[in-house]
Amino acid sequence: MAPIKILVINPNTTQSMTDDLRSPIESLDYNNVTPLPTLVSEDLPQLTIPRSQTTYTYHTSPPGGVPSINSLTDAHASAVHTLPTLLPHLPTHHAFLVACYSPHPLVLALKRELATRNMRHKPVLGIFEASVWTAVGLLGERERFGIVSTGEGWRKVLMEAVRGMAGGSEGVFGGVECCGVDAGGLHEGAAVEERIRAAVGRLVGGR
Question: Residue 120 in contact with residue 95, Cβ under 8 Å?
Fold first, then answer.
């Protein structure tokens, strides 16, 4: 089967952030092409159906854009700057992942561009939306989920975005806590890890 090509998009201009995406994404091992045994019926022998190979292209917003997306204003500016550089990739990829933890306007912009090119069937997803839908799907009875984000400016934005997605999600959404660093500082060592732990503690303690 032909490979499935996914375009992973970092809408800021910091190449090191794009590079940090490679290991966790590729460790998912969706490149496994080992034949998958399938039993059609008891009267027929087993057939093997090969899994589609998944390949990734990593795209960083070009120079001149936003180096670290720390507000919804930054997100809008980065979408405007990044979108034109993505258009040549639309016909050659099967799906698109926007790797910015926010309700990033590039998700909707890409969907619109695909629709105008009769490629509406190609999915576009942001990591924020993916995390919320996954969390809701994994919740057990009387469980809730919450979000730990970077700077304080994201608290209201993410709260409103989750409620807009889930529609009256107060019963399952525990809120947002921020660790007080920008996106570019998330990998700066033990001090940042301690801030994240403290934010998790506040979130869990507020249950």
Answer: no
Which pTM value belongs to this model?
Answer: 0.84
Provide the residue type at 167 as one letter: G
d(CA 195, CA 74): 23
Please count the other Cβ atoms lying within 10 Å of the Cβ belonging to residue 21: 18
Residue 28 has which token pair?
């998912």
pLDDT number for residue 36: 47
State residue 186 phi and psi, 5-degree precision: -70, -20
Nearest by Cα to 173 from 126, 149, 198, 139: 139
At which residue do the structure tokens 């995390």 appear?
131
CA–CA distance from 155 to each of 72, 149, 158 (Å)?
Answer: 11, 8, 6
Q: What integer pLDDT is reported at residue 43 of this predicted model?
A: 57
Q: For 126-135, what is each residue's pLDDT tens digit?
A: 999 999 999 8
pLDDT tens, residue by residue, 10-46: 999 999 999 999 999 988 877 654 544 554 455 555 5
Cα angle 146, 202, 68 (rounded to 5 degrees) comes to: 65
